[in-house]
Amino acid sequence: MEIYLRGAAVGLAYLAPIGLQNLFVIHSALFHPRRRAMLVAAVVIFFDVTLALASFLGAGAVLEAVPGIRKAVLLIGGHVLMLMGFRLVRARVAERGEESSAKASLWRSAAAAFAVSWLNPQAILDATILLGAAQASVPPGTDWLFMGGMATASCLWFTCLTLLVSLLGDRFTPRVLRWVNVICGVALFIYGASLCFTAAGEMFG
């Protein structure tokens, strides 16, 4: 039980800082009906848990050991995030709960969730550092308990975040939501651009 709780504590410490995943979940909860937002949260949880598991097993070390993979992830992830940000800035703000054709595709939301998780090399490296240190302190044979705690933390965090923002979102006017779109879009675009510049620096530096 102690190992399970340790995994849950590490999971919360890993998820709590505001990052791209949290930004994506908050945006989804504000702009989608609650049922749809919960589906998006479930997709994010899946990608988050698989990313944590891969990082626990050393994905970050592979990313660092093979420069070509790192550069490819930086370039692809950067361009995808810049495109997501550009679309958010230009998006029309509908009445809350109204679905446009662009919003209606769960596959598009799943692709975006994948991008903010698996195409974010900084998240992979941060998770590897945190989970690598934790792995060294986990007794042999208890890895599954530790990762079970991590998975539980991810489920609780993103579910509660979605429900909380969805409940509060009814108070936001379309004007406020428009600014949320712009701020989220600019943040995604800037972060994506920074990944591309980093990749360019590694390629030509």
- What are the low-pLDDT stretches, counting only 5+ consecutive residues below 50? 95-104
Oligomer: single chain
H/E order of the elements? HHHHHHHHH
Largest sheet properties: none
Class by SSE composition? mainly alpha
Number of helices: 9
Helix content: over 70%
Return the average pLDDT rounded to an integer.
79
How far is the N terminus from the C terminus? 49 Å
Please indicate the percent range of residues in DSSP E strands (runs of 2 or more).
under 5%
- How would you describe the shape? flat
User: What is the count of distinct domains?
Assistant: 1
Q: Give the strand tally.
A: 0
Keywords:
205 residues; mainly alpha; flat
Can you tell me about this structure?
With 205 residues, the chain is an all-alpha fold. The protein is built from nine helices and no strands. It has helices spanning 2-15, 20-31, 34-56, 59-65, 67-90, 106-118, 121-137, 143-169, 174-204. Helix 5 (67-90) packs antiparallel against helix 9. It is flat. The N and C termini lie far apart (49 Å). Residues 95-104 have low confidence and may be disordered.
SSE order and pairing:
Elements: H1 2-15, H2 20-31, H3 34-56, H4 59-65, H5 67-90, H6 106-118, H7 121-137, H8 143-169, H9 174-204
